[in-house]
Amino acid sequence: MEATTAARTDSSITHPTTPPLTARQEARRRRILHATARLAGRGGFEAVQMRAVAESSQVALGTLYRYFPSKIHLLVAVMRDQLEHLHGTLRKRPPSGDTAAERVASTLMRAFRALQREPQLADAMVRALTFADRGVRAEVDEVSRRTTAIVLDAMGREHPTPAQLRAVRVIEHTWHSALITWLSGRASIAQVRADIETACRLIDLTPADD
């Protein structure tokens, strides 16, 4: 999930070429995302079918496809929505820790615990990110930007150096991989924590000036 420094540090959630939605359109979009999350939470990736989402959100199937061309687009958008909610929560209750590495590890474990509460939804979102192709690049980039913004806030770095961004990228890859191994039953929560804490130590080893 790589992007330019400017793109990755920008916490804006609006794609630059996308006109802003009207209040009515945004309300419809949120109904669609909530319906998708409910379906995925109950039945996982396979339960998210476009017709079922349209019926549950009370929008026409054609309208749904105009907002989201596929279930992959839908689930990646849900992931971004979940991260946005987490980011708001973290801004209200910042992570504790004496070092940037400790704060980032604490933040990512909070995110992990939130996903742990709804494992079928977590599995559906992670599958969507894994299956996403070039056609979903804009949505995946938004997930990446939001994840990066969360990590940088925990670090306390508004203007990171290129070296720090490289460290953040490794941490994000580790977090994503840890989610996959936990969801597949190949890693315990303790192993997930150990992997995340190990990766986060890169932050304290990275010079503040590059």
Automatic annotation (TrEMBL):
<dbReference type="InterPro" id="IPR050109">
    <property type="entry name" value="HTH-type_TetR-like_transc_reg"/>
</dbReference>
<feature type="DNA-binding region" description="H-T-H motif">
    <location>
        <begin position="49"/>
        <end position="68"/>
    </location>
</feature>
<dbReference type="GO" id="GO:0003700">
    <property type="term" value="F:DNA-binding transcription factor activity"/>
</dbReference>
<dbReference type="InterPro" id="IPR001647">
    <property type="entry name" value="HTH_TetR"/>
</dbReference>
<keyword id="KW-0238">DNA-binding</keyword>
<dbReference type="InterPro" id="IPR041642">
    <property type="entry name" value="KstR_C"/>
</dbReference>
<feature type="domain" description="HTH tetR-type">
    <location>
        <begin position="26"/>
        <end position="86"/>
    </location>
</feature>
<dbReference type="Pfam" id="PF00440">
    <property type="entry name" value="TetR_N"/>
</dbReference>
<dbReference type="Pfam" id="PF17925">
    <property type="entry name" value="TetR_C_20"/>
</dbReference>
<dbReference type="GO" id="GO:0000976">
    <property type="term" value="F:transcription cis-regulatory region binding"/>
</dbReference>
<protein>
    <submittedName>
        <fullName>TetR family transcriptional regulator</fullName>
    </submittedName>
</protein>
<dbReference type="InterPro" id="IPR009057">
    <property type="entry name" value="Homeodomain-like_sf"/>
</dbReference>
<feature type="compositionally biased region" description="Polar residues">
    <location>
        <begin position="1"/>
        <end position="16"/>
    </location>
</feature>
<feature type="region of interest" description="Disordered">
    <location>
        <begin position="1"/>
        <end position="25"/>
    </location>
</feature>
